[in-house]
Amino acid sequence: MRVLQNLFDNNKRWAAKIKESDPDFFAKLSRQQSPEYLWIGCSDSRVPANEIVDMLPGEIFVHRNIANLVVHTDLNCLSVIQYAVEVLKIKHIIVCGHYGCGGIQAAMGSEDLGLIDNWLRNVKDIYRQHQVNIDALQNEKERVDLLCELNVIEQVANICHTTIVQRAWKAGQELTVHGWIYSIEDGVLKDLDVCVTNPEEISQTHRIK
Hints:
Number of strands: 5
Helix content: 40-55%
Number of helices: 9
Shape: globular
């Protein structure tokens, strides 16, 4: 089937519903986008950024990839961060992982999955650093979920270590980086109590002058 008609029908109903509640919504949206938030999340289809925080289009800028990684050689992700920080002037960057992440589970195993193994090597490195504490847990779900949390914390640090974010702080721009995790089982977000607001809160090794 060349045309997925059901998706076009869904789109028409969705657009009509939005216009019914706010007739000028799309006209205003087309003139500019001015979100205060950048969401970096997992590509998992069960973790849609806007819906989770009940926000409309235009209110949150989104980047998603497998296991919500921020890799310093990933020009796609870095370009999103730069645009969000320097052009959109967002005030908050949120890294949001989710429990039971398939990418995290795969990184904890030894199966040959092909190309994605190179991407997930970033998660394997985190697992290696914390393996003693993770493997000490008796329950497999608990082990996976702990690595999901540790992965989010690591990605928050990776964002803070970028020259993009540090230059923004140096220029006096208001910018906070947060680490959250989402439970697909109940739809509830959890704050991992990771919140960085300035370069004084990151390691001396990664600070730029």
